[in-house]
Amino acid sequence: MTKSKVVIIDRHPGRSAQTIGVARELGTDQDLIHEPSVGVVGTKGDSQCYMGVAAKVDAIHASLKRRIGKGAGQLKLRLVQPEYTIATSDGIRNGTREMRYSLIGREVTHDALCEHLSATGLAGTIAVVACDKPPVGALAALLEHNQPAIIMSDGPIHPGTDPNTGEKLDIVSAYQVAGNPDAEYRHHIACHACPGYGSCGGMFTYNTMQTFIGVVGMQPLHMVAPPSDDPRRLNEFPHQLVEYLAQMMARGLKPRDIVVRDSIRNAVIVAMAIGGSTNVTLHAPEIARAAGYADFWKEVMTPAEFNHLSQYVVPVLTDARPYGKYSMVDIDQVGGVQVIVRELLEAGLLNGEVMTCTGETLAEQVKRLGTRTADGKVIYSVARPYKPTGGLRVLGGNLSPEFSAILKLAGVEGGLENNLFRGKACVFEGEQDLLTALDKTPGRFHNNDMIIVRYEGPSGAPGMPEMLDPTSRITTLCRERGIVVALMTDARFSGGSVGLVIGHVGPEAGLGGPIAFVQDGDEIVADLDKNELNCTALVDPAILKQRKAAWDMVVAANGGVHPNCGDADTRLLHRARLTAVPATRGAGLHPNREVWVRQPREATRSGFVPKNKHRPETKNAT
To answer: Which sequence ranges are marked TM in the entry (predicted)?
Structure first.
């Protein structure tokens, strides 16, 4: 009996000791410890959004392990154990001061994953993501690392059902009854709104961004919409993901080969077509930055072009929550997001030649999937859309000189019948003051009030919280009383917010933007023909100068920070206070407020121009 030969690789024993130990514990070949490494990453948090992630990570890790080795057809690579990043639950924390950590969580995911990718030197990565912010942070880190990588969103939760009425429920349903005086009824809705596990099921921020990541090319389209508990996520998708990653590594296909100007534009257009979350205008600039485009609004898509596409070219194709009826699970049942992509491709609105993580172009992937046509109930055709114009609009004007203000037009329920809202300012110096008023004195709000919530921006809050709690209460108040109450803020909104709500108004109040100078009773005008948001009082240079001087005196007397800004009482919040960039740059945390771009791309533009072949231009905004 002959002894097997031991292969000894002459490498530093100190650096080899733990890699040998890991290989032994994982059951992989010790001879591969100095080969390029591959691994799986995931996100963990304290809500239902993340409860299904670990099982998918384990299934993908097991599938990857089966492909590692020195045999024919195997991947001669070093396998590393799975890594997780932490995350915050938006749904649990809306309406609390802890919500300031939500958008910061995108940055924490980015930093943690960047450390893992770079320090481990991963040559191939599969990321399983959930909730709103970790997917964007993960994609940004993968783009900066720029080695073969692929993403799978874990999937949405099923809608709940009210056993008394049969009405479909979700987390927004629960927020919308927060002001109901019947405590038993409030508890009843809360108990039935979120059964099972998975991320929020409507076309809120999670599903907006998972669709975005699929369309931008970093996630297979057929893996976006299935619910978290779909058996395919454990039994079929892991093998497919490993195969796609192996092909990417063999071809040298990297994230920056996929996430290019036209693929980002495709994803933004699809976000318009699904009536997606306003948060896409925060996340798209950060993704573009990580892909090498220093200024999304100059190098990828200008505000004028964004508005032209949404106003005249791209219709809303989905009857989806929060502005419609159906959930992402329903979209999956009628064929998935690839149906939406097919409709837009055939209408000439997307560039189908961009590359995706499957190794196919976007058009090739849609064709291979045998994508169905629109059913006309959940997903509509471009020729006969659910709504005639796109779901998002950015606004300029004297309250938004940065052209940062964003309106989810798909969710407007009244007040813009002639593309014009004219109302009276009702000012609150922070979200908590507004919530107190909605709780204790809801009768103070009147038809055509424009509520202003300020000092909640990226630097002022700090952290730019989203405001699902107050917007949901205002929506219910307006429906019950048959009035229109609008809201504008330098903070942001959940994708579940509906109504005439305008966020990201910048420059923010904490940095002395015009929103800081508005006073109770000022006339506020939102003009959707001009795409402007204006305070008529601030048109007068003398009034503007007087109010700014008064504001400057208050700031100077308080050590350089306005007293209405939130406390930056942790290192993370202090970091946000000092380094947050404006909403137009993604509201991320970057030193000296400058957006750092690794390997910047040349600011070249392609010749692809979206054109809706199915309908003439229209000026009807709603």
So the answer is: none
Reply yes or no on whether the pLDDT at 17 is more than 80.
yes
Q: Annotate 284-317 with b (16+ C-beta within 10 A) or e (fewer).
A: bbbbbbbbbbbebbebbbebebbbbbbbbbbbbb
Helices and strands, number each (H, E), in the chain: 22, 15
Q: How far apart are CA 394 and CA 405, in angstroms?
A: 5
477 is written with which tokens? 């108040």
Cβ neighbours for 452, distance < 8 A, ≥ 6 positions apart: 425, 426, 427, 428, 487, 488, 489, 515, 518, 524
Close Cβ partners of 303 (under 8 Å, ≥ 6 residues apart): 297, 394, 396, 403
> For 181-229, how does the pLDDT look when each residue is reduced to its tens digit (9 = 90+)?
999 999 999 999 999 999 999 999 999 999 999 999 999 999 999 999 9
Residue with tokens 């709500």: 501
Which two tokens mark 412? Answer: 């407007």
Confidence of residue 593 (pLDDT cuts 50, 70, 90): low
Residue 72 lies in a domain: yes
- Residues 38 and 28: their CA atoms lie apart, in Å, by 12
Which of 472, 494, 497, 606 is labelled catalytic? Answer: 494
b/e per residue 325-353 (b: at least 16 CB within 10 A): ebbbbbbbebbbbbbbbbbbbbbbbbbbe
In the block, residue with structure tokens 């989810």 = 408
Structure tokens at 344: 């837009």
Q: Is 530 exposed, middle or buried (0-12, 13-18, 19+ CB in 10 A)?
A: middle
Of 504, 503, 498, 502, the closest CA to residue 478 belongs to 498
**Phi, psi dihedral angles at 168 (to 5 degrees):** -75, 140
Cβ-contact 259, 265 below 8 angstroms: no
User: How close are the terminal C-alpha atoms of the chain, in Å?
Assistant: 83
Q: How far apart are CA 38 and CA 82, in angstroms?
A: 10
Q: Is 16 annotated in the active site?
A: no
Model pLDDT, residue 4:
45
Angle between helices 205-215 and 337-346 (to 10 degrees): 60
Rounded Cα distance, 409 and 621, in Å: 8
**Residue 69, burial from CB neighbour count under 10 angstroms (0-12, 13-18, 19+):** middle
Domains identified in the chain, total number: 1
Q: Is residue 40 part of a domain?
A: yes
Mean pLDDT of all residues belonging to the chain? 93
Asked whether residue 528 is assigned to any structural domain, the reply reads yes
Domain membership of residue 533 as a residue range: 27-158+196-596+607-622
- For residues 348 and 360, give the distance between their C-alpha atoms in angstroms, rounded to a whole number: 19
10 Å CB burial of residue 490 (0-12, 13-18, 19+) is buried
Domain annotation covers residue 174: no
Between CA 576 and CA 428 the distance in angstroms is 22
This prediction has a pTM of: 0.94
